[in-house]
Amino acid sequence: MRNTVRELRTRRGLSQGDLATAMGVSRQTINSIETGRYLPSLPLAIALSRFFGTTVEEVFDVDR
User: Fold this and answer.
1) How does pLDDT run across 8-64, given as a tens digit for each residue?
2) What is d(CA 16, CA 38) in angstroms, rounded to the nearest whole number?
3) Which of 3, 11, 18, 55 is the most buried (most CB within 10 A)?
4) What is the helix, strand, coil percentage profile of the chain, to 5?
5) Residue 27 and residue 30: Cα distance in Å, rounded?
6) What is the DSSP letter of 26?
7) What's the pLDDT score for residue 40?
């Protein structure tokens, strides 16, 4: 599953550590999500989409 977490994060000028702190997860978790090695739980996916002011479907795309 592809996602736009890296693009959304860098547009805001955030490091992986900054986003991890905001989400209450490790920097490694953010890195793994961005590289597609880890699929976040539904609560984390919702938290990420709310943080970026968008929908889960716009952040995570199963068709890409």
Assistant:
1) 999 999 999 999 999 999 999 999 999 999 999 999 999 999 999 999 999 998 775
2) 15
3) 3
4) 60, 5, 35
5) 5
6) -
7) 97
Question: Residue 40 and residue 1: Cα distance in Å, rounded?
Answer: 11
User: Tokens at residue 61, please?
Assistant: 């795309």
Alpha-carbon distance of 49 to 27, in angstroms, equals: 17
Torsion angle (degrees, nearest 10) of CA 62, 64, 38, 13: -120
Q: Under a CB-based contact definition with an 8 Å cutoff, are residues 60 and 45 in contact?
A: yes
Has domain 2-61 been given CATH number 3.40.50.720?
no
Query: Phi/psi at 44 (nearest 5 deg)?
Result: -70, -40
Residue 21's identity, in one-letter code, is: T
